[in-house]
Amino acid sequence: MDSICDETKRLNYLETFFYQHEKVYLELMCKRIGLDYTLVDDYYLDTIISLLESLEKSKADYNWFFYELSKLKSYEDISSVLNIAIYPKYLESWFKSYLKIVKKDNINIEDRSKKCLKLIQNI
Q1: Quick one: which of 2, 68, 74, 121 has the most CB atoms within 10 Å?
Q2: Separation CA 68–CA 80 (nearest Å)
Q3: What confidence tier does 93 reach under pLDDT thresholds 50, 70, 90?
Q4: How far apart are CA 77 and CA 61, in angstroms?
Q5: CA-based angle 94:99:102, to the nearest 5?
């Protein structure tokens, strides 16, 4: 790696910008699933990481997942979200933890859907 770039400068760059990148990414992902990113806490980060793992394990298309999540009319009927996955049990498990956050932060489904759809339209 030394032949390509100065190791000290590279590490300095990572130390300077990694946190900023992580913060922006977390904000974007919170918006994609309808969470209030101003309330970000460790449990949001854990939920995002868990979601990414669940999407990979379930073999679900990421964009289709976010689209279907944005259209949910009820937290009790998540069949439209689960139907896009080859292995839906992983998404179902993730959704249970997501519901805990939604209830804890008192996020109603209409507001969540509006936030999600607004972001999807901008992407």
Answers
A1: 68
A2: 6
A3: very high
A4: 19
A5: 130
Measured distance CA(33)–CA(66) in Å, rounded: 7
Query: E strands within 1-41?
Result: none
Based on the structure, what is the number of domains in the chain?
1
pLDDT tier for residue 41 given thresholds of 50, 70 and 90: low
What are the φ and ψ backbone dihedral angles of 100, each rounded to 5 degrees? -60, -40
Query: Which amino acid, one-letter code, is at 51?
Result: L
Taking CA atoms, 92 is separated from 5, 24, 25, 76, in Å, by 45, 27, 24, 11
Output the CA angle 119-54-111, nearest 5 degrees: 30
Parent domain of 19:
7-122
Would you say residue 90 lies in a domain? yes
